């Protein structure tokens, strides 16, 4: 098993292991603390991690970096002032992971590990976390969403018994992110029904509020700090070293207010005039409460939206399970209970629950590494290889065990025993594959030995880990996908691109799906044009511009063996691993070519001027939709769009106040707000596209009926069309543009099949190429020979040969003739 779990946190990190049915959280050998502050300092040639690094906050000659987890998956870097170069969030995170490896005092050196991430982490952030693990020296990294980890700790570590199908809410508010998840037990396993979150809402934001509203005014009153509020955020400004120091002081005060009603803040700083400024400030809990009202309201709004989607009331939940250091705040605990009206469970350790759950999960995962080669031996005994399969955690009192042997197993015997002496299978004849039901001790860690003997009762050495099963503990059915994964396709009729949902939000990982799409325009061999297979992450109902790109495959005309004709099929297979690595395989049936790529995106750029331009475009788009809604007397939709317009204006004003060298996370928060607003706009205006696509469906249907009457379809074609029509009411009643488009695509595909099998249609295409295009071919003599050959094929009714003549004539046409009928925008697929 993997057995090692890590909580890579914004504020603190930790490492734990699963051993003999229990969880051990490793402590720092220097101070015996179970957590490591996620802080890195560079002083000269020294790299300092954790508590010691914090001591250098605000000091000259030392670079100190914190909260870099919030910028995972971005192109942000952290410049070093003492030497050349800069570090990425991946680099800094890997240093935290390396330091945590030093906590392990058992002598083990794990090659694989489970690392937790917020449930709302996107694919780029997830990929960056895996990259940090690899950079830290782990061969394999498995990701686990933090609410799932916390729930595993709650159910298993605390020995709680949870009623089947009685859901509870995980409220995970850490240093950098907020996650909420609805979790329940189903058939003895834990299942996540839904989750929602904000990657830029956490204790760090509370600290920033304290710094801006309490500390900066106190400093400006005590000394000369011109434009402190603005300049402290500038990476090149005079106060850049003050930012992490004041954030740390704010964090200390916040933590102190969880224990008392007042916190004492002391600061000794030199102002711009060189004068020593001493500040002593009393910060009261009621002041903190005032600052936290808006962020808490934001978390509750997200929770209520999730409950609405799931069609359940807060009262239907069993309890709220608190996770994350920020949930220690008394006001937050009280307000949650009051607003939701359900029990707030504070029994789990908010700081350690995630790492404990990560270790539980790691204890249930089999290693993905190949078995180590057995050292050569002079023993005369034969060598057997064995592979075993069983569940490491279960609610059942018996566990199904199977093992498969390779090697000279015939004539041998095996024996399975439980190490406490409570079970012995006795000697049984060995088969290539054996199966046993292993009886378990209730609520206990069970260990079994598998031994194999030759006919002389000599024990045959096996390379096998101990068989370990924990009864009474819970596993998970799989991790849910945080957002839809979509493919961008052409909407030729409206001259735009839309999204086709491949994997839906909350689908359980891993996932795999194959789609059949059609080429939406002619792609000429050797041309600059091509097919764009672009995968995005975000709501499938939105337009592509409102979602995030994961990656793309571009297949240029220069990559093609032959031209691709409009309407020809493309087979696209997408596969996503439990850690959200996405592989895409594209097969072009017409040219018999295959292309593939594995998307492991690590960086997302947010450029302030570009973001302002995107917001201006969005603002203009909203204005156009308002005018159209008012013209159609859709006043309710118009009012909602006006509200969104005000949101865009507010966000633009917020962005105007940022420096291009701003060191905070605010530009990332604004970029996320822009996408959320764009998605809400798309949701409001999608009704008009439903009307359009329904009209398109009926036009496609009329075209198909003409083909059925004109081109003599086969009986199988008739049956396939009748099957589509039988589901027509369901397509139209769904009011989903994508479902209706799916029906259109099926009809078009059948339409194309009938046409290309029809002698009449082949003749029409051939005579168009032979007569209308005559004189336009690159090689007239070759074309003339093909035309004569085609005519002969028609006379002899050799239609396969006629198809070949058509394709070869097409290839002889110059690109400018071929592209006359093309729609030259979009992706090239529909």
Main attributes of the structure:
830 residues; alpha+beta; 6-stranded mixed beta sheet; 20 helices; 25% strand; globular
Brief account:
With 830 residues, the protein is of the alpha+beta class.
Commentary on this structure:
The protein is α+β, with helices and mostly antiparallel strands. The strands form 9 sheets. Strands 1, 2, 3, 4, 10 and 11 form a 6-stranded mixed beta sheet that branches. Strands 20, 22, 23, 25, 26 and 27 form a 6-stranded mixed beta sheet that branches. It has a 5-stranded mixed beta sheet with strand order 14-13-12-17-18, sandwiched between helices. Helix 4 packs across helix 10 and helix 12 (635-656) packs antiparallel against helix 13.
Note the total helix count: 20
The major beta sheet can be summarized as: 6 strands, mixed
Radius of gyration: 32 Å
Instruction: Name the overall outline.
Output: globular
Based on DSSP secondary structure assignment, what is the total number of beta strands?
A: 35
From the helix content, strand content and strand pairing, which structural class follows?
alpha+beta
Helix content, binned percent: 25-40%
Mean pLDDT: 85
The poorly predicted ranges are 820-825
């Amino acid at each position: 098993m993997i057995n090692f779990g890590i909580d890579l946190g914004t504020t603190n990190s930790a490492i734990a292991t699963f051993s003999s049915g229990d969880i051990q959280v490793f402590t720092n050998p220097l101070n015996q603390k179970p957590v490591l502050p996620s802080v890195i300092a560079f002083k000269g040639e020294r790299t300092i991690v954790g508590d010691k690094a914090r001591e250098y906050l605000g000091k000259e000659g030392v670079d100190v970096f914190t909260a870099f987890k919030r910028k995972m998956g971005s192109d942000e870097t952290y410049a070093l002032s003492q030497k050349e170069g800069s570090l990425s969030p991946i680099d800094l995170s890997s240093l935290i992971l390396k330091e945590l490896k030093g906590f392990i005092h058992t002598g083990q050196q794990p090659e694989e590990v489970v690392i937790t991430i917020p449930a709302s982490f996107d694919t780029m952030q997830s990929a960056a976390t895996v990259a940090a693990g690899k950079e830290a020296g782990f061969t394999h990294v498995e990701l686990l969403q933090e609410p799932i980890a916390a729930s595993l700790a709650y159910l298993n570590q605390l020995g709680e018994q949870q009623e089947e199908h009685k859901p509870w809410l995980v409220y995970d508010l850490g240093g950098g992110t907020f996650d909420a998840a609805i979790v329940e037990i189903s058939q003895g396993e834990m299942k996540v029904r839904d989750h929602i979150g904000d990657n830029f809402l956490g204790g760090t934001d509370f600290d920033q509020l304290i710094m801006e509203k309490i500390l900066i005014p106190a400093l400006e009153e005590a000394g000369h700090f011109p434009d402190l509020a603005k300049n402290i955020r500038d990476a090149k400004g005079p106060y850049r070293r003050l930012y992490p120091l004041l954030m740390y002081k704010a964090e200390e005060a916040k933590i102190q207010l969880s224990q008392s009603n007042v916190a004492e803040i002391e600061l000794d700083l030199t102002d711009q005039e060189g004068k020593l400024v001493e500040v002593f400030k009393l910060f009261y809990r009621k002041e903190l409460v005032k600052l936290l009202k808006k962020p808490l309201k934001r978390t509750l709004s997200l929770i209520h939206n999730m409950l609405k989607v799931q069609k359940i009331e807060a009262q239907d939940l069993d309890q709220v399970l608190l996770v994350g250091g920020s949930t220690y705040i008394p006001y937050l605990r009280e307000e949650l209970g009051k607003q939701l009206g359900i029990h707030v469970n504070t029994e789990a350790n908010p700081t350690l629950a995630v790492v404990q759950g990560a270790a539980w999960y790691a204890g249930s995962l089999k290693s993905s590494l190949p078995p180590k080669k057995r050292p050569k031996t002079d023993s005369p005994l034969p060598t057997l290889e064995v592979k075993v399969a069983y569940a490491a955690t279960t609610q059942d009192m018996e566990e199904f065990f199977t093992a498969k042997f390779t090697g000279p197993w015939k004539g041998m015997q095996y024996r399975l025993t439980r190490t406490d002496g409570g079970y012995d299978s006795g000697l049984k004849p060995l088969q290539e594959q054996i199966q046993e039901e292993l009886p378990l001790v209730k609520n206990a860690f069970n260990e079994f030995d598998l031994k194999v003997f030759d006919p002389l009762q000599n024990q045959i050495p096996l390379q096998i880990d101990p068989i370990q099963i924990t009864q009474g503990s819970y596993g998970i059915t799989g991790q849910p996908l945080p957002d839809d994964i979509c493919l961008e396709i052409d909407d030729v009729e409206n001259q735009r691109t839309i999204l086709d949902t491949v994997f839906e939000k909350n689908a359980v990982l891993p996932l795999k799906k194959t789609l059949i799409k059609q080429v939406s325009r002619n792609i000429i061999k050797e041309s600059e044009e091509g097919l764009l297979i672009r995968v995005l992450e975000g709501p499938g109902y939105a337009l592509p511009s409102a979602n995030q790109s994961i990656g793309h495959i571009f297949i240029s005309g220069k990559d093609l063996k032959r031209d691709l004709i409009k309407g020809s099929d493309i087979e696209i297979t997408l596969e996503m691993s439990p850690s959200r690595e996405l592989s895409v395989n594209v097969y072009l049936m017409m040219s018999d070519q295959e292309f593939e790529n594995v998307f492991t995106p690590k960086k997302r750029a947010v450029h302030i001027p570009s973001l302002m331009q995107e917001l201006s475009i969005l603002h203009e788009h909203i204005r156009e939709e308002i005018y159209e809604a008012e013209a159609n007397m859709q006043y309710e939709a118009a009012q909602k769009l006006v509200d969104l317009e005000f949101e865009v204006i507010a966000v633009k004003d917020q962005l105007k106040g940022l420096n291009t060298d701003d060191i905070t996370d605010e530009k990332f928060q604004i970029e996320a707000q822009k996408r959320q607003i764009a998605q809400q706009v798309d949701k409001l205006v999608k009704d008009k596209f439903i009307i359009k696509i329904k009209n398109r469906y009926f036009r496609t249907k009329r075209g198909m009926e003409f083909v059925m009457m004109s081109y003599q379809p086969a009986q199988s074609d008739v049956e396939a069309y009748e099957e589509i029509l039988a589901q027509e009411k369901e397509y139209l009643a769904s009011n989903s543009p994508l479902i209706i488009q799916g029906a259109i695509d099926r009809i078009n595909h059948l339409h194309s099949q009938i046409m290309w099998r029809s002698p009449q249609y082949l003749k029409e295409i051939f005579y168009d190429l032979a007569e209308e295009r005559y004189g336009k071919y690159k090689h007239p003599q070759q074309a003339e020979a093909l035309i004569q050959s085609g005519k002969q094929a028609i006379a002899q009714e050799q239609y396969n040969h006629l198809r070949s003549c058509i394709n070869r004539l097409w290839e002889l046409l110059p690109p400018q003739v071929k592209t006359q009928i093309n729609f030259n925008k979009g992706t090239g697929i529909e």
